[in-house]
Amino acid sequence: MLVSSSDVPSVGLRERKTIKTRLSIQGHAFRLFYQQGFEATTVREIIEAADVSESTFFRYFATKSDVVLSDGFDPLIVASFRRQSLDKSPIGALRAALLEVFGSLSTSQANEQRERMLLILDVPELRATLIDQFAQNMWLLTEEMGERTGRNGDDMAVRSLAGAAIGVCLAALFALVDNPAADISLLLDEALAHLESGFRAL
Q1: Contact yes or no for 81/87 (Cβ under 8 A)
Q2: Which residues of 158-185 are buried (b: 16+ CB within 10 A; e: fewer)?
């Protein structure tokens, strides 16, 4: 059974504003990427299109690649994960956290995130970096799951669970290639639901 968005609290106003600014810059950047290509687009063009200052741009993104690769969601997901009731399993808490964060996005913002992931999966250098980021996320999730379960982060059971969670999330994102119109949050939730159930449906 999928977790309903009504089962999780909403993201705070300040956090939503941060996401909105980041997504606005990314939205203008993506438009330029699609019009003239990733390599041909400059940082200056993105700043002018988004109508932000240079300092604002670099407050959110260190490089042009970061405009695509960075989403700023990790701290929000971690914070939500920590807030989840302890009667939820670690995977159940992760599902709820992802739905809380992605469920706070507007339709246009969600569409931009879907386009962002499709762009990453289409550009080899960005796709390779995405895999590296997922490896880093695995260690972050290992620490959080260790804390939640009262076990050490170097416990193989905790590492394995975190690795499995990251793996099914990655599989969900690659499913976008086959179905570009899919809802990312629902793909992630479905993938994690299979993991939480032990893949008993197979």
Answers
A1: no
A2: bbebbbebbebbbebbebbeeeeeeebb
In single-letter form, the type of residue at position 135 comes to A
Tokens representing 23 are 């997504």
CB–CB of 165/194 below 8 Å?
no
138 contacts 163 by C-beta, under 8 angstroms: yes
The pTM assigned to this predicted structure is 0.78
- The 10s digit of each residue's pLDDT in 153-173 is 889 999 999 999 999 999 999
d(CA 192, CA 89): 12
Q: Give the C-alpha separation, 103 to 27, whole Å.
A: 18
Handedness of CA 122, 123, 124, 127 (dihedral sign): negative
Assigned CATH topology for domain 67-196: Tetracycline Repressor; domain 2 (1.10.357)
DSSP 182: S
Amino acid at 201: A
Residue ranges of the domains in the chain?
67-196
Residue type, 41: T
Cβ partners under 8 Å of residue 18, min gap 6: 72
Of the candidates 129, 122, 126, 202, the residue with the CA atom closest to the CA atom of residue 168: 202
